[in-house]
C-alpha cells in the first residue's frame, strides 16, 4: 500500500488524513463481483461502512446495489447513481420521515425489524397510494463468534423479529394491503472470519423459508446480510477478503429454489483494507513504566480501537522509508495514543515499534470500514481529510 513515493508524498501533507488506495479498492470490488457473479448472487454495499464520495462512486461503477440504514443513506445512494431497484433499507428505528423518503424513492425493499414497523410502513404507503416491498428481518439466534459489541443475531440483541413472533408477522401481512412480502432477511454480525458460522445461518434460512412457504407466503428473496471479516493483522499479505470461500458456503448450503434470488449486504470486506489513517507523532513521552507516542489523530478520527477494543495494525512509515534508514535499529514498546482529553483515547498499548520521533509519519491500517464515517467533532476537532492514491 505504501511505496517510497507515497511516503515521500505524505511528508508535505498536513495530517491526520485517511489515505485511500483506489487501485486496491477496485481490485477488491472486482474479486467480489467475480465471485458473486459466478452464482448469480446480488450484492448490496452496506453504505454505513464508508460513504466517502470517491469510494461509493467506485462501488457503484461495479453495479452493486446499496444497503442503507437511514433515509439520508437512501437519498445519498440514489444521488450517487445506485439503481433504486437495488436499494434496500434496514434499521430497527426507521422514522416516519425516513420511511417516506424511501417510499418516494421507490426503493427495492424495506427490511422490516418489528411487527409495529410493518403497520407503520403500510399506513405511510397507503397515504401515498403505493405498495411497499418488504422482507422480514428475522433474528435467527445464530452466534456469529465475533466481538459481542458487533454481534446482532442473538435473541438478546435488539435487531430483527424473533422466530416465536412469526405467526403474528403473517397475521399482520394479511392485514396490510399496501405491503408486498418479498422475502426474508438476516444479519448476524460483523467481522466474521469463521465461515462455519455461515453454514449455521444457511441451515436457519432453509428452515425459515420453508416455514413461510408452508404458511402460504412464497419467498422470492433470501437476504443473508453481511459480516464477512478481513485480516486486520496481515493487511499486506491478505489484502482481499475470502469472497470465493464465502459465497461458496451459500452456494453449497443454501437451498435456493427456482426463481429465488440470493442477496448479500457486504460493507467491511469491500472497503476496509483500501484505506489507512495517516498521522504524525506530535510528542514522545518516555516514562519509567510506559512510553507514549502522542499522535495527531485520536478517537475523533478513528474510534474502533477505543469502542470495540479492536486491533488495527500500527506502522511507523518514516522508519520504513529510505529517508530514515540511517536511524537506529532499536525497538521499543509504546502506548500509541491520541490527543483527546479521554484516557480511553489509546489506539493500542505496548506496541513494539522502531524507535520513533516527533514528526514520524504513522499509518493505522485497515481503516476503510467504519473509520472515516464514525469520526466526530468532539473537542471541536477539524474534520478529518481524505487523500487518494490517484
Ligand atoms: N447489513 C446490516 C443489516 C448491518 O447492520 C450491517 C452492519 C451490514 C449489513 C454490513 O456488515 P459488514 O459486512 O460491514 O460486516 N462499527 C462496527 C461494525 C458495525 C456493523 C453494523 N452493521 C465496527 O467498526 O466493527
User: What is the CATH topology assignment of the largest domain?
Assistant: TIM Barrel
Instruction: Supply the CATH class of the largest domain.
Output: Alpha Beta
Radius of gyration: 23 Å
Oligomeric state of the chains in view: single chain
Helicity range of the residues? 25-40%
Structural class: alpha/beta
Q: Total helix count?
A: 12
How many structural domains does the protein architecture include?
2
Reported CATH architecture of the largest domain: Alpha-Beta Barrel
**Mean pLDDT, all residues:** 95
Bound molecules: ligand LLP
Separation of the first and last Cα atoms: 13 Å
Q: How many β-strands, per DSSP?
A: 17
Which blocks of ≥5 consecutive residues have pLDDT under 50?
Answer: none
Name the shape in a single word.
Answer: elongated
- Strand percentage: 15-25%
Explain how this protein is built.
The protein has 390 residues and is α/β, with parallel strands linked by helices. It folds into 2 domains: 4-17 and 273-388, Beta Barrel (Lyase, Ornithine Decarboxylase, Chain A, domain 1); 22-272, Alanine racemase (TIM Barrel, Alpha-Beta Barrel). It has 12 helices and 17 strands. Strands 1, 11, 12, 13, 14, 15, 16 and 17 form an 8-stranded mixed beta sheet that branches. Strands 2-3-4-5-6-8-9-10 form an 8-stranded parallel barrel, surrounded by 4 helices. α8 runs parallel beside α9. The longest helix has 19 residues, at 196-214. The protein is elongated and about 70 Å long. The mean pLDDT is 95.
Amino acid at each position: 500500500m505504501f511505496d517510497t513515493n507515497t511516503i515521500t508524498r505524505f511528508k508535505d501533507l498536513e495530517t491526520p488524513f485517511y489515505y485511500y488506495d483506489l487501485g486496491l479498492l477496485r481490485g477488491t470490488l472486482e474479486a467480489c463481483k467475480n465471485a458473486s457473479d459466478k452464482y448469480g448472487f446480488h450484492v448490496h454495499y452496506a453504505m454505513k461502512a464508508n460513504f466517502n464520495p470517491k469510494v461509493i462512486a467506485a462501488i457503484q461503477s461495479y453495479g452493486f446495489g446499496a444497503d442503507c440504514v437511514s433515509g439520508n443513506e437512501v437519498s445519498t445512494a440514489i444521488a450517487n447513481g445506485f439503481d433504486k431497484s437495488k436499494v434496500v433499507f434496514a434499521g430497527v428505528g426507521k422514522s416516519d420521515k425516513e420511511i417516506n423518503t424511501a417510499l418516494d424513492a421507490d426503493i427495492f425493499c424495506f427490511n422490516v425489524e418489528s411487527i409495529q414497523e410493518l403497520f407503520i410502513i403500510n399506513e405511510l404507503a397507503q397515504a401515498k397510494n403505493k405498495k411497499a416491498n418488504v422482507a422480514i428481518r428475522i433474528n435467527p439466534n445464530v452466534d456469529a463468534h465475533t466481538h459481542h459489541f458487533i454481534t446482532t443475531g442473538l435473541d438478546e440483541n435488539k435487531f430483527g423479529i424473533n422466530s416465536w413472533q412469526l405467526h403474528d408477522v403473517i397475521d399482520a401481512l394479511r392485514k396490510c394491503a399496501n405491503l408486498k412480502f418479498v422475502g426474508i432477511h438476516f444479519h448476524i454480525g460483523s467481522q466474521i472470519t469463521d465461515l462455519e458460522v455461515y453454514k449455521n445461518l444457511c441451515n436457519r434460512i432453509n428452515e425459515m423459508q420453508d416455514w413461510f412457504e408452508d404458511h402460504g407466503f412464497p419467498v422470492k428473496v433470501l437476504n443473508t446480510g453481511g459480516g464477512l471479516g478481513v485480516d486486520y493483522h496481515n493487511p499486506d499479505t491478505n489484502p482481499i477478503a475470502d469472497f470465493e470461500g464465502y459465497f461458496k458456503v451459500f452456494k453449497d448450503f443454501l437451498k435456493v429454489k427456482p426463481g429465488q434470488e440470493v442477496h448479500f449486504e457486504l460493507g467491511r470486506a469491500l472497503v476496509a483494507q483500501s484505506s489507512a489513517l495517516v498521522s504524525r507523532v506530535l510528542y514522545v513521552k518516555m516514562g519509567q513504566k510506559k512510553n507514549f507516542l502522542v499522535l495527531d489523530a485520536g478517537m475523533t478520527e478513528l474510534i474502533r480501537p477505543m469502542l470495540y477494543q479492536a486491533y488495527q495494525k500500527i506502522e511507523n512509515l518514516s522508519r520504513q522509508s529510505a529517508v530514515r534508514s540511517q536511524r537506529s535499529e532499536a525497538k521499543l514498546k509504546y502506548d500509541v495514543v491520541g490527543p483527546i482529553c479521554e484516557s480511553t483515547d489509546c489506539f493500542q498499548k505496548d506496541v513494539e515499534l522502531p524507535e520513533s520521533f516527533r514528526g514520524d509519519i504513522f499509518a493505522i491500517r485497515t481503516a476503510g470500514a467504519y473509520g472515516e464515517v464514525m469520526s466526530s467533532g468532539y473537542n471541536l476537532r477539524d474534520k478529518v481529510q481524505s487523500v487518494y492514491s490517484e
